[in-house]
Amino acid sequence: MNTHPAFQQFTHSTRNGFEQFQAYALIALDASEKLCALNFGAARALCEAASAAPLAQPGSDLEAGFAKQRETQGQALEQFGNYLQQVNEVVSGAQNELLELGSRHFEDLQASMQSMLEQARKLGSVEAFQAEAAAVPRSRAMRKAA
Description:
With 146 residues, this protein is mainly α.
């Protein structure tokens, strides 16, 4: 079946749009997977830190107990800072990938639309020329009949 090039180009653009959607979905799923892994790791570290935290026992040295708690809390804050840094890296990486993919998709779409409009303009000028050429013999025929 021989179809018009504009329809083929439109079909190609539609297929390309679907492929772009799939790429967006894969980027989002990859980022979600990384964030889930980070969250599980952070939850595990929090549970380990909570179970390793020393409890103050009656009759023990309070100053030594507070020093151990400060050390444990300092480690927890450091881990939290690392967690936030990793979350930021995942989110900014996914955002950059989405922006790059979106700009490429927009450029492709813009080029495709420009090409289709150019073809439509050429097709419109050919049809107008054919209509004008067909109108000339009719007017001559009308003059001859008069």
